[in-house]
Amino acid sequence: MDERPYKPIDSPGMIPHLTVKNADKAIHYYREMFMFELVKQPIRFNGEIMHAELKLYDARITLAPEGAWGMTKQTPASQNIQSPIGFYVYVKDVEAFYKHAQTQGAEILFEPTDMFWGDRVCSFKDKDGYDWSFATNVADFDPKNMPK
């Protein structure tokens, strides 16, 4: 008998899970602002989305609404706190990505900027209070470029 793989074949080794205020609105937001795609149909319970999985290139996230499955997790926005985590996602063209998100009305934290580690990065805050950075690698890391 063949041994079953430790994870689904098409799944990355780690998938961050986000608590969102409203799953339907969050899915719409991530698809419109950040061009994520649904991996499969969301899981619904009593008509409400309880779990969804989205991807952008090879990056994945899952999400569930506050209170899903009896959990007490809340979004950073609901708690009125700065998100304790941020997301860093590589995209093929950070300039085009930034322009798309900007025209869709995303809350901009900073526009595309060259960073000392070799990435060109832009950053946004989503409706649930999570910080998202999107980057394209444009150069190799050079320690001489580190801030003094």
Automatic annotation (TrEMBL):
PROSITE patterns: VOC (PS51819). It comes from the Bacteria. InterPro entries: Glyas_Bleomycin-R_OHBP_Dase, Glyas_Fos-R_dOase_dom, VOC_core. Residues 11-137 form the VOC domain. This is Glyoxalase-like domain protein.
